Each structure stands twice: as C-alpha cells, then as structure tokens.
Amino acid sequence: MNAMSAAHVAAPVGRRRGRPPGKGSRAGSLKDMIVKVLRQRSKPLTPQEIADGVVGAGYKTASKNLTKAVSNALPTLKAVRKVDRGLYQA
Question: Does pTM top 0.90 for this prediction?
Fold first, then answer.
C-alpha cells in the first residue's frame, strides 16, 4: 500500500461516518416553541418578541442570548415565513 491508498481506508461495513441524519426537531424543542408562539399571534413578530413569548410559554433555557438562538433558528423553519425586515409570521 502506498501513502495515498492508506489514507483512504473504508469505514466498517454497515456503519456510516459522521453525524447521524436528522430526525426533525424533538418535542418541546426551541423550534417547536417558536412555531407555537407565532401561531398564537396574528401579527408578525420580531425575534425579541418571539424569544419573550417562548420563555413566557414555559421553555426552559440556560442561553445567555436566547434572541440570537431564535434568530438563527427562524430561517430553518419551513412553517415560518419572513414578512418584512426582522418580522416573522407562521
């Protein structure tokens, strides 16, 4: 074996490398709570208002900056659409 082929050793059969595929958000997750809060309100909300609503709905977090976590999660949610700059609606 030369140096090139030694570096390309295959993984064991039946086992995939890397992070396992996603199975969606778990029940009670931040993403679920964001959608829940947005569906309760009829008007579009800012990430700060969503974060306040998530905490008010009983979501437990140790995050120092929950608004940033909400802002990062919003673009990944299919049930949420961006209405205007900084405003989101379910």
Answer: no
